[in-house]
C-alpha cells in the first residue's frame, strides 16, 4: 500500500520529501527486506531527494538488526561522505548491533567513543548492553558497563528494571 501511495504521488507530479521516503523505507527495514529498503533510497535519489540522518540511521538499523555490521558501517561511511555527522542514535544502533552479534568489546568501544564525543547514550543503550553481557555470562563486561553508566551520571531508573 505504501509503495502504491508513493507511486500515486509521483504519477500526480508530486515529489515526496525525505520523510515520506524514510517512512516507506522503515517499513521494509522492519520487515527485514533490506533489498527493498535500498531500492527506496535509490528511488529517493532519482527523484532528487537527499537522504538525511534519519534515512541513514534507518538503513543502519536494518543492517545492524540482521547482524550485518559491515553493511551498517558502510552506511555510516556513506553518511559521512555526504557530510552528515553521525549522532548518538547512529552510534547506539551500531553498539547494539555489535552487542547483539556478541561483540561486546566492540560495543563498549563505541559507547566509550560516544562519551568521548560528548554524545549522551540513552539508558536504554546501557540497559541493552548490560542485559546482553549478563545473558552471555560476561560478568566482567557487565561490571564495566555498570561502572561506565554510573560514572557518566546516567540515572538507573525504571529502565534498569527491564535489564
> Biggest β-sheet: count, sense, barrel?
none
In total, how many beta strands? 0
State the separation between the terminal residues, measured CA to CA: 37 Å
Quickly give the structural class.
mainly alpha
Radius of gyration: 18 Å
> Could you name the ranges where pLDDT drops below 50 across 5 or more consecutive residues?
158-163
Mean pLDDT: 89
What fraction of the residues are assigned to beta strands by DSSP? under 5%
What is the number of helical segments per DSSP (H or I, 4+ residues)?
Answer: 9
Q: Give the overall form.
A: elongated
- DSSP helix fraction: 55-70%
Q: Could you state the order of secondary-structure elements as H and E?
A: HHHHHHHHH
TL;DR?
Helix content is 70%, strand content 0%.
Written overview of the protein:
The chain has 163 residues and is mainly α. It is 70% helix and 0% strand. It contains nine helices and no strands. The longest helix has 13 residues. The C terminus is likely disordered.
Write the layout of secondary structure elements.
Layout: H1 2-11, H2 18-30, H3 34-46, H4 53-65, H5 69-81, H6 88-100, H7 104-116, H8 123-135, H9 139-151
Helix pairs in contact: 2-3, 2-4, 3-4, 4-5, 4-6, 5-6, 6-7, 6-8, 8-9
Which characteristics define this entry?
9 helices; mainly alpha; 163 residues
Amino acid at each position: 500500500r505504501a509503495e502504491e501511495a508513493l507511486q500515486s504521488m509521483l504519477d500526480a507530479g508530486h515529489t515526496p520529501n525525505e520523510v515520506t521516503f524514510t517512512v516507506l523505507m522503515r517499513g521494509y527495514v522492519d520487515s527485514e527486506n533490506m533489498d527493498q529498503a535500498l531500492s527506496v533510497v535509490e528511488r529517493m535519489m532519482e527523484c532528487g531527494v537527499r537522504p538525511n540522518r534519519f534515512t541513514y540511521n534507518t538503513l543502519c538499523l536494518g543492517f545492524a538488526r540482521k547482524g550485518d555490521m559491515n553493511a551498517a558501517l558502510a552506511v555510516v561511511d556513506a553518511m559521512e561522505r555526504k557530510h552528515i555527522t553521525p549522532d548518538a542514535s547512529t552510534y547506539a544502533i551500531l553498539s547494539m548491533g555489535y552487542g547483539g552479534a556478541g561483540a561486546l568489546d566492540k560495543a563498549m568501544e563505541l559507547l566509550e567513543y560516544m562519551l568521548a564525543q560528548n554524545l549522551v547514550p540513552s539508558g536504554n543503550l546501557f540497559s541493552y548492553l548490560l542485559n546482553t553481557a549478563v545473558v552471555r555470562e560476561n560478568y566482567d563486561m557487565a561490571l564495566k558497563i555498570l561502572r561506565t553508566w554510573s560514572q557518566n551520571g546516567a540515572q538507573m531508573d525504571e529502565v534498569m528494571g527491564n535489564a
